[in-house]
Structures are given as C-alpha cells and as structure tokens.
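Researcher: Going back to the complex we discussed earlier. I've cleaned up the inputs and rechecked each line, so this should be the final set. Can you rerun the prediction on the complete assembly and write out the structure?
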Amino acid sequence: MITPTRSLYVHVPFCAHRCGYCDFVTTSRSPELHGRYVAALQRELALQGGAPEGGFDTIFVGGGTPTLLEPEAMGELLAWLASVQAPGAELTLECNPETVDERLADQLAAAGARVSLGAQSFSAHVLEALERRANPETVRGAVRQLRAAGIERLSLDLIWAVPGQTDEDLARDLEAALELEPDHLSAYELELKPGTRLAHRFGTDAATALGEAADEHYDFVIDRLQEAGWWWYETANFARDEQERCRHNLAYWHADTWLAVGVGAVGARAHADGSRVRRANLPNVPRWLKAVEAGELPPARIEEIDQRTARLERVMLALRLDQAVRIEASDIADGIVDGAGLERVMELELGTALPVGDADGTLRGTVELRLNRRGRMLQGTVGGLLLDP
Ligand SMILES: C[S@@+](CC[C@H](N)C(=O)[O-])C[C@H]1O[C@@H](n2cnc3c(N)ncnc32)[C@H](O)[C@@H]1O
Ligand code: SF4
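Model: Rerun complete. Updated structure for the full complex:
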C-alpha cells in the first residue's frame, strides 16, 4: 500500500539561456510549447493518481524558469493549481528577476503565491561570472514590483563561494538582500557541477577553486543573518520567523513523500512498511510530452528504496535542520547509525546526544542528537561519521 501524499512538485523546464553553473533540467525550446506543456502537466498528475482528497497542502513550482511561461500558459497553470490545492495551502513559484513585469506580478499575487526569486548576488561582476541575465537593479526592481502587486511571502536566493567573489562582495550581497526585507533567504554554496561551463573553467573541486574562502563565507553568512535576527533553520535556509519557513521543503527534509510532475521531476512515495519508491522522469521534453499526451506515464527511472536505506536517509536529512535528531535504539542496534561514530561526534564537540525515556526501561538507548553551530556547518562530516562507518 502506498501512503497518500500532501505535497506536489511541478517542474517547468523553460529557460531563456543556460547559466554557467546550472545543471538543472532545462530547455530553451520555443514558447509555442508552453500551453501544451501545462496541459500535459495536468494529464500527468491524473495518470499518477490525481490530487489527494481535499487537495495538496504544499505545491512548489520549480525550474527551469516557471515565470518564463507565456501569460496565457501561466494563467492556465495557476488556475489548475488553484483547483488541486487545499484551503490555506502554500503555493511557491521560482521566479527569475528579468521575467517580472506588472502582469506577471499581478497574476502571482492573485494566485496567493509565495515567490522564490533568484537574486544570486547584487555584485555586477558576480552575476556576470555566473552568466546571469539580470543585473543588481533588475533584481531590486523585481522585488519592488512583486511587493507592489501584493506578494506577501517573498524569498531570495543567494549564492556564495563564487570564484572572484570577495569578502566585501558577499558582505554587500547580504546587506542588499536584507535591505529588500524578504521573508526568507536561501544562501547556497556554489556547487561546481560536472559538465557546466564554470566547472570547465575552475574544475569541480570547490576546495581547489576557492581554498578556505568557502568556509569563511559560510561562517560569515550565518553570523550576519543571525545577528540580523534571522533563524538559520536549515543548512542553506534562513527564515524571518517560524511561519516563513518553506513548508514544502520541510516536507522534503522530514523525509515525507511528494508527488512530482513534469520533465525531469523527481518524486518519492512511501509504502506502509517505511520503504520508499523514488520516481525520476527522464529529462527529455519530446519523449515526456509524447507519452503523457498518449495517456501513458512518462519514461522514468524508478528506484526502490528499502527500509534500511529509507531509515538512513531520514537521519541524513534530519541533520540539515535546526532541531534535535532522534536516533532510535533500533537504529544503532540494526547498524543504521554507528554508535562509535556518535561518540566521535561528541568527542569532536560537534554536538550532544541526550538519552530519551530511560529510567523505567522505555526507549533505552534512544537519544536526541543536537548539533552545535560547528556540527551543523559540518553536517556532511557528521553524516559520514554516523552513517558510513
Ligand atoms: C532550480 S534553480 C531555478 C531558479 C531560477 N531559474 C533562477 O535561476 O533564479 C533554484 C536555485 O538553485 C540555486 N542553484 C542552481 N544551481 C546551483 C549550483 N550549481 N550551486 C548552488 N546553487 C545553485 C540558485 O540559487 C537558484 O536560484
Ligand atoms: S539557474 Fe535558473 S535561469 Fe539559470 S539555467 Fe538554471 S534554472 Fe535556468
């Protein structure tokens, strides 16, 4: 039996061009395809079993550049999403600054959307290095226009550890972002993904490309945002307050399940026994369209995740969040979590593990691991110690 899921991811692959660092599933195919693509998204959801009773609680439209859709296709997308969401649902759309105009801002506001705007940087030379289409003024203008239209929940994406980005550039980026008074900030370390133009220039090893600057940048980002009163609630994510956390991504970090539609989209569903199945649609627009329009599920890579791996992934994802990670006695007994690794995490002063229950014999050996700041910054290392003996 597959358990029902309350979250939906929708992938829109269209981009005006490919930025030098990006390896997401994107295509620069013609706008004539937009309407067909949106219609096919709806068919794919039906083929995957449709919306749950009462609608989805969270919907995330990612890209690509969802806001590149032609206005009519965007209207159809938003009307369809309104019909599959629960009352009070969180609907997020990723948005590129250079695509924002009054009409788009009004459409998004009327849909009650949360907007995640890809600012990346406010330094012209960093934006150029990333091969972005927007300049710092475009980013500021987009924020003003979205707010004027009535967008209530606005998130900005920033990227740090970009080759050539100085400490001063990063400091300026953070101040500029804070000045715009967003509700949420994502600050990503640049990943030099194999096959991208930046990786071609700098290699794929950030340590070689940036040396220790990367760690210092991360430190600085956390310091400055916490000092400004922001909550560092996930490895790369900061919220103005609890309500502003991204509910959709929290479902992902809590190892919940979600449906995913669109070319290249990846979804995960859980069986009642805790094992999971991950479905990744192949990243090929014509093949995806052909299958869905013929009433068939699109070609996909299906991965069965056994109970053991699912438990391991749950711990790995939980380490990303600013909350204690519950490690069951059975996780250690079954060798999911390495007990010696847990001791090592504490020896290295990366966190503390407190027993849960105990005294009257309940939950003996179950602990709550709370990482400290350094432990959270080194979350990958902690994961390696706990899960990869
Ligand atoms: C899937 S992208 C799409 C968003 C939108 N098209 C844009 O570019 O603003 C979402 C976010 O992922 C981040 N991202 C993409 N590639 C990255 C990389 N190689 N390293 C770090 N962050 C990356 C960017 O901050 C981007 O805003
Ligand atoms: S970063 Fe965004 S705009 Fe640039 S290619 Fe990737 S998805 Fe498209």
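Model: Worth noting: Residues 309-387 form one domain.
Researcher: Good, that matches what I expected from the previous run.
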